[in-house]
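Re: the 305-residue chain
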Amino acid sequence: MRSRFEPDRQLTARMAVTMFLLGLVYVAFIAALIVLLESVVVVVVIACGLLLAQFWYSDRIALYAMRGRLVTAEEQPELHGVVDRLCATADMPKPRVAVSAMDLPNAFATGRNADHAVVCVTTGLLRRLETEELESVLAHELSHVAHRDVAVITIASFLGVIAGLVVRFAFYSQLFGGRSRDQNTAAVLALVMAVSALVYAISFLLIRALSRYRELAADRAGAMLTGKPSVLASALTKVSRDVARIPTQDLRTAQAFNAFFFTPALGPGTAVAHLFSTHPSLERRLEALAELSAELGEPGGGAAP
């Protein structure tokens, strides 16, 4: 999809490499499932069916999990007005607009392509941000749609989820399954569990590395579209600060969708944990926005809030 969002060749290259590597891992993973289930047809049909379902219904799944609902322009005129202006500026199709009844201040975009995309904001975000800040956050989310990285992350995330489920399946089938628990069977199940765990670890690291870069790319593209990096930095600072005040139980409920959020529901905490984070650190994002602000000659640019 062509739009006026600044293209990012590095993001495109990283997405291509990530999907290629995950594709190789996925082939090996299917082979491991064939060993476990002893049926090529069943495994391929189930795997392809689950992948297509995840890809085709990703927007519905995300909205249901986050208690989001589509809203009309009559219900949310200001929100729709901001999205309309941004889409006109970016020369891109307008996605559907949704609101999630959560106090957690956040936003996300999902959907298999630009024509089936959804941009969702929480009531907590709408209550906390000024109109310019909301515009900057939505520009960030729309850039994900324009760059097509929403679909890539959706597909990439699927593999890790299935691998984790297979580990559990193999474990419980070994404990309670109807197969004879001889040494050969135990060895096969142990091997499949090991392969599944390895697949999960590889996909986890690849997705995290891609996700961190795509957030920086979306920050830059969104700020370039609005021409106000400092406003996006202000929104980012405000949201990150207020997320820390949300009850931990509510944060953990939303944490499964961290890769899609504007800011993570739970921060990385330590330097080691940052390696497994879906987002760059707040400091890194503010630093990049400050550099862009200075580059654009924005009044007061060069100093992160």
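The first helix runs from residue 9 to 37.
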